[in-house]
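Hello Y.,

Per our agreement to keep a running log of every chain we model this quarter, I'm adding this entry. I've kept the format consistent with earlier entries: sequence first, then predicted structure.
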Amino acid sequence: MQNNKNISSVLKSVSKPGRYIGGEYNSIIKDKNDVKCRFAFAFPDSYEIGMSNLGVRILYDVLNKEKDIWCERVYAPWPDMIQKMREYDIPLTAVESGDAVKDFDLVGFSLQYELCYTTALVMLELSGIPIYSKDRKETDPIIIAGGPCVYNAEPVADFFDLINVGEGEEVLVEISRLYVEMKEDGSYTRSAFLRRASKIEGVYIPAFYDVSYNESGTIKEYRPIYDDVPTKIKKRIIADLDTVSYPEKLIMPYIETVHDRIVLEVYRGCIRGCRFCQAGMVYRPIREKSPETLCKAAKCLYENTGYEEISLISLSISDYSRLRELTDGLLKWTDDAHVSLSLPSLRLDSFSEELMQKISSVRTGGLTFAPEAGTQRLRDVINKNVTEDDLRRSVGIAFKGGKNNVKLYFMNGLPTETEEDIVGIANTAKTVVDCYFALPKPERPKGGVSVTISVSCFIPKPFTPFQWEKQDSLEALEEKQKLLKESITDRRIRYTYHDAKVSRVEGILARGDRRLAKAIERVVKNGAVFDAWDEYFDYDRWMSALEEEEIDPDFYTTRGYATDEVLPWDIIDAGVTKEYLLRERNKAYEAKTTPSCAEHCNGCGANKLGGKNVWCK
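Predicted structure for the entry above:
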């Protein structure tokens, strides 16, 4: 029987009701009579995570600057709320208006992490929207996917009507404007809209492509079902970041979120070319914002929020070519306003005493670096281009600057890895401890030294030189984790590591194809949600679903992909060429490094995308 309850009626019976009440300061409310397109921006994770996502903040601002478009936010309800919604037949609603998601025109999901796929499907189910694109009626909204995961969207392609490949600031407005135009001239139908949207650069309509397979199970070909749709989808980029819209106000949450601070995006792309890093490849070409634009945005956001910390973000903030100019400009007023600067993603080879002094006001007692591998040979294989001398120099500066906690990021399971490389992680951490005690006692920070090593499992990701590599088996990863744990003998070193079972499922989804859709659907039917959270992830549920759908997980993980086979993501043109990726793969097996884009153009192909940037010519 239909119940007449809504979310507000059950708030007293769920945790953190502030996730659902809306009405936050700086949220945008529009008159529905003035709106021609309603866009629900859906984030398939909790409110606390979604509210901290910079991409959501930017796109929410961009869409709402269009007078006749109203973009609202939708987050995944926490499991206790999901239970209540199912019990009382309460539909999923948008935060701003409280209106049902199924009544919107466009619903865009931001896919940041493969293990959010199940949560996205649960959100569709709670909305009363069919999970498969083919099952939706004319009255259902157009369901859109974007974010880093869509560089291989094939495992979830059947669930989405439209996929935005690349940066969304311009293309989402174009999609929304097309919707308004077709509604106003009476030409709108779902199929007609998708056909016209397929002509927009950066738009991928999965239903317009048939996929065939070889007897071996590998992909035979992608074949467009219409002559006028592109054979490859070229990713979309913003050419000039100084001209792109950036929020002048941030929505102020009622509850604590993951990142309660001002976040300044300094540039997009990366000059380094680490061979395991998908972001460093797919976010090319490098495009920087000017210090003038950044300083103006920071001051404006501070005045509109009162936040006491500014975080400067990019893939490698210390590679920003005008970092000194930017930090000097910010420090002219941040010190007096008692606002601290945070510079994450610091590289060992570009960390300096000057940088140390500029971030000395940050309230943390530690710094984070990412050597990624425990030996120089393996660092050369992955093209990390940092040395142990860089590490010694950087932690020495940190200790002299009063920092006594150092966190180091590593990976295990990298191509060509040996036991020596695993033990080398423990040795590298011990080197940091030794650097602390090598200082004269008066120069050491008080409280002793603490080193945390965080080790993730290597996953071969699309559009990287390692996209063809096999992933270590679950047993091999767990053995390496055990070896490293046994190799750490200093109590000052703390070891944390990612669950290898989670990494295996992530690997399946990262390199999977459309045949995985049925397994993902089955996992959801068996109760999966919030798989990105350790307490809700169930490895056996995933393996059971794959078995029931007769899918071999090793086909996507421990099987190395042939360099001449059609890859699931070959439908996408991410800018970097396959020839470049193969050259880098070959150099990896020779342990030869490639210089950064700042030193030498390595011909990755991203310059063909254009853009106002520093390094690509």
